[in-house]
Amino acid sequence: MKYLIAPFLFISLLSFGQYPEGKEIVRKIDENMSSESRMILSKMVIHGRRGSRTIESRSWSEGEDSSFTEYLSPPREKGVKMLKLEDNLWMYSPSTDRTIQISGHMLRQSVMGSDLSYEDMMDDRKLMTDYESRVVGEETVDENPCWIVQLTAISEDVAYHSRKMWVDKVRYIPVKSELFAKSGKLLKRLEMFDVVKMESRWYPRKMIFRDMLKEGDGTEFIIDEIHFNVDIPPALMTKGALRK
Amino acid sequence: MIRFLLKGLLRDKNRSLFPILTVTIGVSLVVLIQSWITGIFGDMIDVNARFSTGHVKIMTMPYLENIDQMPNDLAIIGVSDLIDGVEGQFPDMNFTPRIRFGGLLDAPDENGETRSQGSVLGWGIDLFSPESREIDRMNIRKSLVRGKMPSEPGEILVSRVLSEKLDLKLNDPVTILSSTMYGGMAMYNFRVVGTVEFGMSAMDRGAIIADITDVQQSLDMTDAASEIVGYFNDGMYEEEQALVVTSAFNEKFMDPADEFTPVMQALSQQNELGVMISYSKSMTGIIIFVFVLAMSIVLWNAGLLGGIRRYGEYGLRLAIGEDKGHVYRTMLSESVAIGVVGSFIGTLLGLGFALYLQVYGLDVSQFTQKSTMMFPNIYRAHITAEAYFIGFIPGLFSTVLGTALSGIGIYKRKTAQLFKELET
What is the pLDDT of residue B90? Predict the structure, then answer.
């Protein structure tokens, strides 16, 4: 029997050895996707049961902990601003002239009826910081050969306990991700499309988020404009900027 | 003969006191439990009707399928026309729109920034229309603990527990953060003008009440509502009538081709209240049956003991020529008299206990603190006309049955042996 098992073991070990280190892949993803600072002009197309809505916004982010978003349209949302500083999130609405802190379970609520939660919007941390990773296989997604990387949280302070990512072998873009709860339940699915080279890095122009706990066709996140390593005035990342 | 029987009963306490006591206790328990169950189920159904289900309720089909999530993106649009239509079709009913929504209530500090906040269950109801009956129906005025009723747009009532948790004072500004009907962000300022306490954990934990027009404006729900509740004009729920109305509405207004087709459900078809209604009806029957059975066994036993004790008396009566059937009938007559007296006293006692529970009730709030169902915190008995006579059924029936069973022994006595027995 052992003579039968041995070749299988050898082949398995051989194929296991072909996979690169998960850590190395995740480092390359972080390197590609993260930047010191950036400005994004984007559209969010939310598909609901009563039709679709498009929300335009302009966001600035600095490192992992600070970001500022201003909604530009439609008229009802125009002027709403969001500020994230470390683990805190504030929202300002011109119609009420109020700055409201979003905390606790509210962070898990949907942003503007989309498939993204406030937590998703706030999550700018590098994967390396929060997850340990290993490559569990390979697969071709939309004609792109990908590594399948399994990420498991190393800290409790994360929105998703584990992730499964299909990472483009060439451009190190997670073209497809599945985000899971600690129970193993699939919570969100994220797909990236139209990957183009922007300022020496590969970046998707379109992402589709799907909240797997609700019905619908998901939310499209379309990047119209993106600039990396831009100078952001320090005053923008303050609560005072919300009312301006 | 009747005087003879009554004298016998009154003079021999073993023939009267013990059986009457047994019947009295049993009957009082039947009356109390019947009133108690009627009260509990009645309260549950009434509270659900007033706050949640209406006598009938109209929703869109997808809203109904996801009703626990209060999905206002699936709300009814074109509410005014629909209400005009149904009120024309069912003139004996009154229909009103309601919006229920979840959200965050945020109280600002002097700089307009968050001082305190909490999750809320919001109610948008018709507070201002002169023809609206919602204030009385939901007992809002009587539930007001502090402040006044909203009298103009932008005013809001907050549950007492929530107002204490957020340290809200009268006239404090608050902001509601929720989602519009189309999924957008809804932020709207209100002013707290009163605090309310309904005596229901589901409401008292975090309810806010505002006029429906304000809520429509804040949630971008112009001429839309989560649901339209309908009530019979006399305020009484009639199951058969409600089902007739429901069928007629669904036949006329339901359109399978329309994803958001309106659908009507009667009270008994919602929140499993139908089970509760039939359960409450059958419970009274079950209780009476159990008590009849238990008391019959007790009284049968008492009759057997009495029969043994009165063995000589029966023997003598048979020996001097009294017919067996006559002896048996007199025993039954005695038991009828005992049953009537016991049932009367028992009914009075049971009604007394029930009246106490009807006035003061039993506070179960510690068990319903986390309940999201519309259950009252205090369960009260409810004395109905049935309570005045229901005790006579087991009271009379079980006494007569017990006596009838124990008295069968008379027919087994042999006349030839009677004198022998008497000699010993």
Answer: 94
| Residue A15 domain-assigned (yes or no) | no
- A106 to chain B, any CB pair closer than 8 A? The answer is yes
- Tell which of B60, B69, B73, B104 to mutate to test the A interface (max A CBs under 10 Å): B104
Give me the sign of the Cα torsion angle A127, A129, A131, A134. Answer: positive
CA A69 vs CA A38, A60, A205, A219, B239: distances in Å: 12, 6, 18, 18, 54
* Residue A47: domain span: 20-243
Q: Which residues of chain B are under the pLDDT cut of 70? A: 1-2, 4-6, 8-10, 14, 303, 306-307, 365-375, 415-424
Are A99 and B112 within 8 A, CB to CB? yes
Domain with A86 in it: what CATH number?
A: 2.50.20.10
Does A52 reside within a domain? Answer: yes
Confidence of residue A216 (pLDDT cuts 50, 70, 90): confident
Query: Residue A14: pLDDT above 50?
Result: no
Of A48, A96, A99, the CB nearest to B183: A48
In the predicted structure, residue A8 carries a pLDDT above the cut 50: no
Provide the H-helix boundaries in B49-170: 61-65, 79-89, 134-137, 140-143, 160-165
Model confidence, pTM: 0.74
Please answer yes or no on whether A77 and B184 come within 8 Å at the CB atom. yes
Give the angle subtended at the CA of A17 by the CAs of A14 and A22, to the nearest 5°.
150
Q: Can you tell me the distance from the alpha carbon of A112 to that of A45, in angstroms, rounded to the nearest whole number? A: 11
Q: How far separated are the first and last CA of chain A, in Å rounded?
A: 76
Q: B74–A49: do the CB atoms touch at under 8 Å?
A: yes
Please name the member of A50, A55, A101 whose beta carbon is closest to the beta carbon of B114. Answer: A101
DSSP class of residue B153 equals: T
Q: Does A114 touch chain B (CB under 8 A)?
A: yes
Task: Specify whether the CB–CB gap between A76 and B219 falls below 8 A.
Answer: no
The per-residue DSSP string of A45-88 comes to: EEEETTEEEEEEEEEEEETTTEEEEEEEESTTTTT-EEEEETTE
pLDDT at residue B281, as a whole number: 72
CB < 8 Å to B178, chain A: none
Q: Output the CA–CA distances (angstroms, integers) from residue B95 to A211, B68, B81, in the order listed.
A: 36, 22, 12
For residue A56, report the phi and psi dihedrals to the nearest 5 degrees.
Answer: -100, 140
Closest C-alpha to A168, from A131, A143, A200 = A143
B169, B104 Cβ separation under 8 angstroms? no
| Mean pLDDT, residues A221-244 | 91
| Higher local confidence (pLDDT), A68 or B67 | A68
Does some domain include residue A32?
yes
pLDDT band at A9 (very low <50, low <70, confident <90, very high): very low
- The residues facing A177 across adjacent strands are A165, A190
Kindly state the tokens that stand for B165.
């948790």
- What integer pLDDT is reported at residue B290 of this predicted model? 81
Distance CA A121, CA A137 (A): 29
Residues 6+ apart with CB under 8 A from B336: B396, B399, B400
pLDDT of residue B214: 95
Q: How many domains does chain A have?
A: 1
- Asked if the structure places residue A29 within a domain, the reply is yes
Q: Dump pLDDT digits (tens) for A133-174.
A: 999 999 999 888 999 999 999 988 888 999 999 999 999 999
pLDDT score for B368: 57
Complex ipTM value: 0.76
How close A101 comes to chain B (CA, Å)?
Answer: 6
Contact yes or no for B183 and A49 at CB 8 A: no
Q: Does B214 touch chain A (CB under 8 A)?
A: no
Contacts of A91 in chain B (CB under 8 A): 177, 185, 187
